[in-house]
Amino acid sequence: MKDVTLVLQDGTEFHGKSFGYENPVAGEVVFNTAMMGYPESLTDPSYAGQIMVLTFPLVGNYGVPAFSFEKNGIATFMESDKIYAKALIVSDYSESYSHWNAKESLSDWLKREEIPGITGIDTRELTKVLRENGVMMGKILFDNQPDNIPEAEYNGVNFVDKVSCKEIIHYAANVATPNEAKTVVLVDCGVKANIIRCLINRGVNVVRVPWNYDFTNMEFDGLFLANGPGDPDMCVEAVDNIRMFIERESKKADCGVRPIMGICMGNQLLAKAAGATVYKLKYGHRSHNQPVRMVGTETCFVTSQNHGYAVDAKTLGSDWEPLFVNMNDGSNEGIKHKKFPWFSAQFHPEACSGPVDTEFMFDRFVELL
User: Fold this and answer.
1) Which residues does the annotation mark as catalytic?
2) Which residues, including other chains, have CB under 8 Å from residue 128's CB and lie 6 or more apart?
3) Which of 293, 301, 329, 357 is the most exposed place for a label (fewest CB within 10 A)?
4) What pLDDT, on the 0 to 100 scale, is given for residue 369?
5) CB 63 within 8 A of CB 104
6) For 257, which DSSP code?
């Protein structure tokens, strides 16, 4: 294993060994406190442009499943078609793996997809630095190689445009007669595969459109706003389309209003279309154990999350209200309209991998179609 160094933008250095692809990279350094799920996290498009630090000490012991796809093009075990994280940093990489579904090692997978991996880093100390100072840019440099990589570009970059589909994609409902099923337009900001799976398995057809596609004149029964990476303020065209849609729908009779559901980035875009503002969290929420409470109740859920921005609930218009709140820091975890069937979650109800406490939100959305 080659010696490798992580250099943060404040000059702090962490030294380790390479177990992935040996190529210097730069990105925003973030940490994830989940105990498992690295195949799903690495292939989550929301990690585009980021160097992922896993706080759980032992990583790689259950290997990596086959990178196979279903007939409809959805990845069987992953969340997209490739690794989107810029690099992976762990404390202790397990060279041996054992799992009934494993087909290769994490090291072999990273090398095949040309993604650097570092082991031997004190991830507890690195996480403390990121918690105290906030997420920051960083570089991964290999010894005996020149520091010739560009500075990390994250702020001001539209990562949603980088990961969104470029053309319309259709997914048939997983029912005997999909032609008779309801149709949902999914605005792809970096959608995870299990979101699509959760919809088609509930008997709806999905029309996946690019993030900036004008869907307002299409024929469909419900609108779904997907997750995605980066700054929601960069997605002006998506917000304009959503705002146009809700303005048109709000003029209909109550029974004719089409439902909207959003997840993660979708929560932020819906809130912005409703007039609210967003802000960047100090170090974000990336874990499987974020507690949220449904506003107005004592009902709490354990949720899976991956985001660096949050909605400022105080800036919501009078027709909107918070739906969930984070029990750790009080940040917004979802919104809903007071009159129409429009709601969203900052967390991931599909939670792959992670807890499925809130998957009922998909049931609620489909019932409203």
Assistant:
1) 264, 348, 350
2) none
3) 329
4) 95
5) yes
6) P
